[in-house]
Amino acid sequence: DTAVSQTPKYLVTQMGNDKSIKCEQNLGHDTMYWYKQDSKKFLKIMFSYNNKELIINETVPNRFSPKSPDKAHLNLHINSLELGDSAVYFCASSQEREQYFGPGTRLTVT
Amino acid sequence: AQSVTQLGSHVSVSEGALVLLRCNYSSSVPPYLFWYVQYPNQGLQLLLKYTTGATLVKGINGFEAEFKKSETSFHLTKPSAHMSDAAEYFCAVKVWGNEKLTFGTGTRLTIIP
Known about the structure:
The structure holds two protein chains of two kinds. By secondary structure, chain A is an all-beta fold. Chain A has no helices and eleven strands.
């Protein structure tokens, strides 16, 4: 009964490809997030959705597009992948204050 | 805007010794403060949080932290380090009405046998 799950766990792809990462939470939370963790472990928020509405959109390239079909799911689609997109991407969810994180998706662009 | 600063990107302590990881925050309004732990190749796990009330908060695995408003600090401590405590630790801050959680740059804790 995983709280926040992500698929896939690992993703290796070539530059220029388009890929998606899926996230699901079974906590009944209203708010979900995408974070990027770079090679130096720095964590930065990318997007946040509250009940399917976009509420945070940090300075992220337009190639990144989040989609929330319902409040339990938040997917991340990335177009025209670049070497610099290589990172670990974390999904999270929250109801009030603390956030609960998924296991991460390690994206490697070659 | 809120921010956190973690002093020391790497901290090494001997097994059984005191663990002290430092975090200072900046916020124009009362903050909510968190410590997360990340074990290798895993996601982030919430260790403890301060929202309101008691300034000394206890978390999982024997960790605790004290919110000191006068020092704008939220340092993480554990009386006796265990080998299993080796991990990356992140301090984070949030304010009421803003969904954005801002993380520090992390502190890697190494335990020396």
